[in-house]
Specification:
With about 110 residues, the chain is of the alpha+beta class. Helices cover about 15% and strands about 30% of the residues. The protein has helices at about 5-10, 40-50, and strands at about 20-25, 30-40, 55, 60-65, 75-80, 85-95. A four-stranded mixed β-sheet has the order 2-1-6-5, covered by helices on one side. A two-stranded antiparallel sheet has the order 3-4. The radius of gyration is 14 Å and the shape is globular. The termini are far apart.
């Protein structure tokens, strides 16, 4: 890991499990596509490879978005919030969409508040 990568990772406040939530947003439309978890290695790979990598809590392993579905996300920018404990990743979404259901966004359902 380069010195620059190390300095970047120091700015992120990973939780007690070594994870940080990452909200993924379409860079053009600003639509929120998904939320997933990143650990240090998945964030490092995202920054160096220019495509999204996440950490699966259930499988306890790294995964590259689109690895099996072809729905790859090219990274534009990665932001961190004022506390450093949440990431916002802007991407260009390729393929069918971000959601494993086949929807473009994972946020396709709305709670009925009436």
């Amino acid at each position: 890991m380069s010195f620059k990568e190390s300095l970047i990772l120091e700015q992120v406040a990973f939780n007690s499990e070594g994870l940080v939530p990452a909200i993924v947003q379409d860079a053009a439309s600003r639509e929120v596509l998904m939320m997933a978890w990143m650990n240090r290695e998945s964030l490092r790979r995202t920054l160096t490879e220019g495509r999204t990598w996440f950490y699966s809590r259930s499988r306890k392993e790294l995964w590259a978005k689109g690895e099996t579905s072809g729905a790859i996300q090219d990274v534009h920018d990665v932001y961190y919030d004022c506390d450093g404990d949440t990431l916002l990743v802007t991407v260009t979404q390729h393929g069918s969409g971000a959601c494993h259901t086949g929807n473009y966004s994972c946020f396709y359902r709305k709670l009925d508040l009436r």
